[in-house]
Each structure stands twice: as C-alpha cells, then as structure tokens.
Amino acid sequence: MALVTRWFGFGRNADFDAGIRAFEAGSFEEAVEALRRCLEQRCEPALRKTAEEYWVQAHSRLAFAFAISGRLDVAASHLSEAVAVRPDYADLRFRLAWAYFTMNEPAKAQSSLEEALALNPNYADAALLRAMIHVQSENWEAALASAESPEVASRFRERSEHEALLRAIRAQDAEGVRKLLENALEGSSQGESFHVTVAEGYAKEGRFDQAAAHFEIALRAVGHYPDLHCKYAQVLLELDRLGQALDHLDTAVRLNPRYAEAHAQRGIALRRLGRSDDAREAFREALKFDPHHVIAELEVLRP
What is the pTM of this model? Predict the structure, then answer.
C-alpha cells in the first residue's frame, strides 16, 4: 500500500492523512492512533475501507515487533484489534493463534485456529499448527488425525517426510515430531516470526547452535529490528563468539540508542573482550535509560 492518491482519500481527512504519513514513515503506533480518530468520524465508504486496511496493517506490524521483543501479550492484543476490524481474514486469525500458542495458551490458540480454518479449510499452515497444539497437549489421536490431512501432507517436499511424521506421532516421539513439523513450517506464512519462536525455544533448552541458525534466518529478512539483534547477540555470547556478538549489539544500539538491554549486553561483550573501560561506559549508558537495570547496576561497579 505504498501508493497513496486522492482517489484513496488522501487530502480529504486530516486524521487519515496523518495516519497514512505515519504508516509510510514506519511510525505504526502513531498511525494506529490517527487512523482510529479517522474511523471514529463519518466518512465515505471508500476512504473508510482504505483507512481500515492501513489500520489493520499497522496493528499487524506492531504485533510482529512486540512478538520479537517477547511481549506476546501485547502482540496478541494488537492482532485482536486487527481481527475485530477484519474478522474474515484467515491469516490474521492464524497469527493470533500462533501468538497464543507461543504464550502457552492452547485453548485460545485452538479457538482462533479453528476460526482460521473455517474461513479457509485448505489453510496448510493452520493445519500444521493444529497438529503442533495436539502434540504439545499429548493428544496423540487428534495429532495423528490432523497430520493425516491433505493440507499437512502438502507442506512436505517429499512424501517420505510426511510418512516419517506420521510414524513419529504413532510412536509418540515428541522430539521427532517437533523437528519434522519445524521443517515443514520453515516456509510458512509466519516466516520470520516462526524462526524467532523456534530460536527462543532452543535457547531456553541451551541448544545455542540451533538457536543461532534460526535467528540468522530471521535476521536476513528483518534486520531492522534491534530486539532481534540483541537476542541473537546473547546467543552468540553463549557460544563465545564475542566479536560477532559485539557487532550485533552495536547494530542494536545504532537502531535504538535508548535500548538499555542492548547497552548492558554490549557491556558484557566488551568486558569479556578485555575492554573494561568501554564496558563500564556501556553499563553507564544502560543505566541512563533504565536506572534499575540489574546487570548494569552490578557490573558498572566492577573494576
């Protein structure tokens, strides 16, 4: 929606104009507020429809940003706002289901997922996620029924991979099922968000090589998110790849100079590289933006 003309309504409503300009500038929170004001007014159908489309997209962009930063409840809230305006968008309902799944709220995830599948029964990614939810809850019979569907089968490049999934489910091999479903979901409409979720899961398990691989895929697509650089850097620190970690933390604070966590992690990287003076300065920067940052408070006092 980069093209904006008077035919779409530009120049007819001040709040609409402000919302579109904010959206194109990447200021999505500002866009949401301006477009909300526009939608609260009486306006002609064509303008309202365009405003709604931008409003939904702005909420979607904010949801992705908050999901990457780990604030999944806020991401779900933005997606719920978008769904309220476009209840017939199966993809929005699927993204909301994914957010709930990641938040470990399977009932809400299942509800949103079934609504997505009601809108599009052939939605392969939704069918895959439904199988994952059943595996997570150890409902193996339902997982097998979901996995046997043509929609799930279509997500595998080779028939043998799909057959391996069915065997793993029958054997109740949760780890084997997880790996096969991850492979199938790699090219899903969730895209980068999927890889971030998987990376964070591996990091929590201490499987940092696998986590790094998924963060790298996400970064190739959305390298403009400072949170993503910071999270990847923390994994690199665990792998003792200090120079690379510092590079990504430098990028994070360049993208968001007020990002306290990135400054603190940068201090850790610098200290481990033997640059104590630079490390203390980084910790002081962290405390400037978050005076109670636990790591920075402790580390800034170290010699």
Answer: 0.64
